[in-house]
Amino acid sequence: MGSLYEEPANGFHAKNTEGQVITCKAAVLWGPKEAFTIEDVEVHPPQKMEVRIKVICTSICHTDLGAWNALNEAHRAFPRILGHEAAGIVESVGEGVVDLSEGDHVVPIFNGECGECVYCISSKTNLCERYRVDPTRSVMTGDSKTRFFTKKGGQPIYHFLNTSTFTEYTVLDSACVVKINPNAPIEKMSLLSCGVTTGVGAAWNTANVKSGSSVAVFGLGAVGLAVAVGAAVRGASRIIGVDVNPEKFVKGRTMGVTEFINPKDFKKPVHEDEASFTSDKIERIFRSRTQAGWLYNTRAPIFRNQRGVSITFRGQVLEMLA
């Protein structure tokens, strides 16, 4: 199927699709741990305060794996289109949407903001009363219906995390869409939907890293590296990266990591070796609970004498540990 967009001199525009049902390809999950199937789906037009976007790029996150496993029965809703990290172009907007228009480059966000509720205007949280992330929600906020249907039979297909990006077209609440600079390389923008913002936000907002402070980052994947960037921007003087893959240290250094620990380099358990990394206070510790067992086994021993705050990533949810 060809693209519904062509590129004139002033950018993209839709070809008579506004207000119409669009048929496109999507990766549909029919049950826990089942193989995704690429199917023709119908994507209905956006309704009031909704936006339909053409997905240009989408990436996979561990949260998608958790939804695929569907271990929590309350989160199960099938068939479903997963995916929440993406970048795309607005194809059309619904009634009442004034801050977005056709052709805008955007990223979806699973933790939307109305900008008006008591939570959105608070300086302590951005968990919007209406559009906050909710893994149990599987329909649109406005009318509790889906915008996806199977081409054959018209069966409803459920939404995921306010986003559903494993499809060529998707419909989102406008509160879950953020406009980005059209000059930014769109193929690199999908990580802004989750990985980068989760890591940078953990350092910048949740942990509130201060200038001159020392932090440790367990796991130098996309989120861990983003934590390092956020800590560096906030002026952290010491950023210790911990990972079992030494190849990540090269990239880590470019992201602001100043020191590295590979637990595999120690002949004895780390807490029995030289306490070279505990001489100074580590004020903030970040770790991903989606990483391998070494994370659990090394964090406490290495920094057993430290006093500060630990930020733990459960998928993408942050937990403050005393």
From TrEMBL:
It catalyses: a secondary alcohol + NAD(+) = a ketone + NADH + H(+); a primary alcohol + NAD(+) = an aldehyde + NADH + H(+). Pfam families: ADH_N. Keywords: Metal-binding, NAD, Oxidoreductase, Zinc. Coiled coil: none annotated. One of its GO terms (molecular function) is zinc ion binding. Homodimer. Belongs to the zinc-containing alcohol dehydrogenase family. Class-IV subfamily. This is Alcohol dehydrogenase-like 3. It comes from Acorus calamus.
